[in-house]
Amino acid sequence: MNASTQDLSFSATVEGGAGGSRLPALNDWVAQVAALTRPAAIHWCDGSDAENEALTARMLADGTLHKLNEETHPGSYLHRSHPDDVARVEHLTFVCTTHHEDAGPNNNWMAPEEGHAEMDALFDGCMQGRTMYVIPYCMGPIDSPLSRCGVEITDSPYVVANMRIMTRMGAPALARIEREGTFVKGLHSIGELDPNRRFIMHFPEELTIKSYGSGYGGNALLGKKCHALRIASHQAKSEGWLAEHMLILGIENPQGETHYVAAAFPSACGKTNLAMLIPPEGYRNAGWKVWTIGDDICWMRPGADGRLYAINPEAGFFGVAPGTSRNSNANALASIQSSTIFTNVGVTADNQPWWEGLENGQTPVIDWRGNPYDPAKGPAAHPNSRFTVSAKQCPSYSPMAEDPQGVPISAIVFGGRRASLVPLVFEARDWTHGVLVGAAMGSETTAAATGAVGVMRRDPMAMKPFCGYNFADYFSHWLSFDKEGAQLPKVFHVNWFRKGDNGKFLWPGFGDNLRVLEWMIQRVKGEADAVETPIGALPAEGALNLDGITLDEEAKAKLFGFDRAAWEAEFASIGEYLDEYGPRMPQALKDEQQRIAGLLAD
Ligand code: SAT
Ligand code: MN
C-alpha cells in the first residue's frame, strides 16, 4: 500500500488499551490500514481479562461462540467456522519475493507489487461496519533474546481470542515492540469467507503478511505458520538460526537427567501426542518423566557452548481434536477441561464438546456444522477440528519452556506417515546425512490442509507448506550449522505409521514411543548398540527396550529391518527430487545422496 495515495484523514472510534502506541511506525501503519479497510472502530488489544470478557460477550451475542457446559467445561466455547473454511489452503498461499527463484519451486510465487495490488484490492473497504483489532504479540517468552514480535490487525474477534491463547499478546508485547522499533506486520480480514476471494500472502523481505478470506487456524492466526514459520524461516536464514515445524520435549530419566528432543512431523501426524507423551507403566514406575515444551514450532540457535538452544515461540496449543482421548493423550485431555476454545467439534445432549475417538462413552447430537448428527452424513467433528488452549494448562508443561535462554537440544527427529518401507527408527551417521534424511522426508497427506488425504509426497523437514524461501537455500542453511566448535544434536528418523500386510499399524505408538526416544538418548550418550546399514544405524537386536509389549515376527522384521532393493528405488526417487531444485541444490547434499545410492547398489 502506498501511503501517499491513501486518504489518511479517515477516522474511526478508537477503543481499548492505550488507544495507540508510542511507536510512530506502528501508528502510521494502523492509520494506513484503517484508511484502506475503513472499519467502524479500532480496538487496540491490551490482553487484559476485562478485554477478553467483553470480547467473549460480544461473540456470544452474535453467535461467533457458543457456550459449552459450564459444569463439565468451565470457561469453554465452541466456534463453528464456515464449512468451506476448515483447513489451510496451500494452493492459495504465496511467498512474494523480488526474485522468483528466492521463493523456490516449493512455494507459489507472485511479484511483491502484484501481490500487494491483489491483496489491497480485496482489503479495500472490507472492514466497513466492523471493528478492527490491533494485536501486539510476542512469539516466545517476553524476555527472551530468541523471541520476535509482531502486530496482527484483524476484523475477527475469534482470531483475537485465539491469539490471546497462542501468543504472549497485549501490553507487554507492545512495550517490547516500542523498545525494539521493529515488528512483523500481519494484516488479516475474514472478508466474505469466500474461497474464491481468499489468499494468504507473505512478503518476507518486508516482514509483512496479508491474509484475506479465511478465519481458520493457520490462515488467520498470523503469529503461527505465517510469522513463526514462513517469515521467521526467512529471517532465521539471514540471522543464523532455524525456525522449524517441530515439537520440543524433555525426557527425564530416573537419575534426574533431562535431555531435550526436537521432532519434525507434518501437520496431524501426532506432534501433540508425542510432545505430551505419558511413559508406559514400567517406565513411570522406574521414575521416567516427559516434559512438554512445545507441540508445533521450534526456534533454535547455537549457544556459546556450540549446542543448539530452542524455544517454543507459542504460548498455547492448537491441537487436532479427533483421536484425542484418555488413552491416546491424557495430558491433552486434562488440559482442555476448562478455558478452551473448540473449533468445529460436535456437541452432546448436555452441551459437552465431542469428537470421534474421544471414547468417553457419550454420543453427539449436533455435528460440527450445527446440524443434528447423522452418521450417514459424515463424522460429528470435522477431521481437522481443533482445540485452542494455554500451554500452562498442560500437566506436563515444562517450567523450562519459559526460560529465555531456551533448552539445549540433544537429538533432532524427523518422521513421516509411511505405511511401507521406512523402519521404526534409524540414526543418521553425521549432520550432512541428517540434513539429507530431513530433506528426503516423505509423508502421506492429512486433513490439516485442503486436498486429497493419504497421498505420499515429499515434505522436507515437515516444512513443505511453511518454508518461506527456496528449499535448496534452506538445505544449504541447515548444512551451514556444521562448523568449527559446533556441538550438533544427533539426527534420527522415525516412522510410527508402518503397516503390516493386514493394513494395521505394527507399532503401538503413543506412550510406547518413549522406548524409541530412550534408545536415541542412549545413542547420544554412546550407550546403545546399533547395526550400520547404508540408510543409517538401526537398533541392534535387544538394544531397544521391548519389555511389556509383544511384536510378532512380521512386525519385528518390518520395524527393525531394511529392504535393500526397495531403498535403492527410494534413493533414486530422492535423487530425482533433489534435482528438481536445479543448480541451487547444495552439492554436498547431492553427494550424500550419491554416496548412499552407491552403497545400496553394492
Ligand atoms: O492450521 S494450522 O496450520 O495452524 C495447523 C496445522 O496445519 O498444523
Ligand atoms: Mn503444525
Automatic annotation (TrEMBL):
PROSITE patterns: PEPCK_GTP. InterPro entries: PEP_carboxykin_GTP_CS (IPR018091), PEP_carboxykinase_C (IPR013035), PEP_carboxykinase_GTP (IPR008209), PEP_carboxykinase_GTP_C (IPR035077), PEP_carboxykinase_GTP_N (IPR035078), PEP_carboxykinase_N (IPR008210). GTP binds at A268, C269, G270, K271, T272, N273, R386, R417, F510, G511, D512, N513. Residues 28-237 form the Phosphoenolpyruvate carboxykinase GTP-utilising N-terminal domain. Mn(2+) binds at K225, H245, D296. The active site is at C269. Catalyzes the conversion of oxaloacetate (OAA) to phosphoenolpyruvate (PEP), the rate-limiting step in the metabolic pathway that produces glucose from lactate and other precursors derived from the citric acid cycle. This is Phosphoenolpyruvate carboxykinase [GTP]. It comes from Aerolutibacter ruishenii.
